[in-house]
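Progress against Task 2.4 (sequence-to-structure conversion) is shown through the following example record, which the project officer requested during the mid-term review.
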Amino acid sequence: METSGRTEPEACPICLDPLQREAYLDRCFHAFCYHCIVNWSRFIKEKYCQSATSIKCPLCKVENFSIVYSFYGESFSRFYLNGASQDSFFTSGHVFRLQCYNSEPGNIFNVQQYWKHQRYRRQNIWLSSWLRREIQTLTKEEDVDIIFHHVLGVIEAFFRSNEGHDMKLSPEKRQEKFRAMLVDAAMPFLGERTERFISELELFLASGLNIEAYDRVYMQKIRELCNSMEASSETNS
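Structure tokens generated for the chain above:
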């Protein structure tokens, strides 16, 4: 709602007042006043389990493990529900991407068209930065140079091979070969997250966007999903 050309501040779902010291739950990304959601988490822990390390969002019931707040550019603070300390190298971008891996990937960009129209032949200048951040997010380690260079080397070798005899492969076979090579390269480091990581990599490559634009589109998709879950929950209640 707008008054005199100005947008009213978003209301906190708990206190219903305008958001104060805006904070987000780390998986569903619903926003609350910092003190409201912290007090809510303490109330839930006291009521149900003193050793609880997670809480369900008051709105969508998705399980969350920390509260992210005090955003200043790429820095932020985080309140862990299990009392652990924040990983200092984690930026808000890392937190967001971890949230993405804990949600359904969805059809954000057309991966099939990416392979069909050979768009992989265009160099993606943002791939290195995106890849390093993804590996840091999944391993929760700052120094990922060995993994990063190994995986990037496999990706670059694959794209170079498509300039030779592999040009005759169908789009489906080319994609299948790409995923198989990445499974072999990443599985020792990423384990059960490997297949999802490769799917996220394909989405990023298919987008053709820089990291900031890609994150904005992805965040919008997650918010639409959360709103849909919330509406479905209200309908069924």
